[in-house]
Amino acid sequence: MVWCAGLAFLKAIQKRCLRVSKIGKTANTIKNRAHANDVFYTPPGLVNQLLKHTPIHPEEFVLDPFSGDGAFFNAFDNRAKDWCEIELDKDFFGYDVPVDWVVSNPPFSLISETLDHTCKIATAGFAYIMPTYSLTHNRINRANGFGFKLSKLVFFPTPKNWNLGFQMCYAVFLHTRFELSHLQRMDSLGPAIVTLDMTEGIQTRLI
Ligand SMILES: C[S@@+](CC[C@H](N)C(=O)[O-])C[C@H]1O[C@@H](n2cnc3c(N)ncnc32)[C@H](O)[C@@H]1O
Predict the structure, then answer these.
(1) Residue 64 and residue 90 in one domain
(2) In the chain, how many domains are there?
(3) Is the pTM of this model over 0.85?
(4) pLDDT means per 10 residues in the chain (207 residues)?
(5) What is the domain extent for residue 18?
(6) What's 198's DSSP letter?
(7) How remote is the CA of residue 82 from the centroid of ligand 1, in Å?
(8) Is the distance from the beta carbon of residue 104 to the nearest atom of ligand 1 less than 6 Å?
(9) Cα dihedral across residues 103, 104, 108, 113: positive or negative
């Protein structure tokens, strides 16, 4: 009897170890995948749609902190704009000059660090693509602590070539000190929650 219980206990431990090693293997695969810097390029058509939901004034200064191939940077209409890209030796975390807006698709493994640094240099607002599950209470509260409020959420189908199984979103935060003028601009851009339907070209469905 005691022997049977002992055997069952050992089997349970073996099963658990197997599960933990599988989880470890998955985490390792994600960490070491070909895109070590989380390099998921955003299709230009999607960038154009997302910028329609971002209340940037043409005369404001916009930074694309993770420019990659420049999908966001090239799409900014603003004359005053700048970019960072680690592959070109311009590290966003070394960029300390205040800017009006910070807008991009960041490395998904650096969301917390990205939000913290962004909140320190953005004065009007910021907007980022991110996995929806990354938008945690803690991160939203930290942004609130810097005076930024989550003001708009745009959901869109994950581009197929990213091979990611989770729902993506584009979160727009506005600084409360500019709330009135920016909220007026935001109002003119439609509802606070939007779903892009990109199955046939790019259409916008408002919810
Ligand atoms: C998800 S990709 C997005 C590229 C581009 N924004 C787009 O939407 O197509 C993230 C980019 O950030 C760059 N990157 C990673 N860490 C960085 C850092 N600390 N500073 C600047 N760029 C960085 C990567 O090399 C990569 O090109």
Answers:
(1) yes
(2) 2
(3) no
(4) 54 52 42 58 94 93 97 97 97 98 96 98 97 97 96 92 91 83 73 78 46
(5) 1-32
(6) -
(7) 14
(8) yes
(9) negative
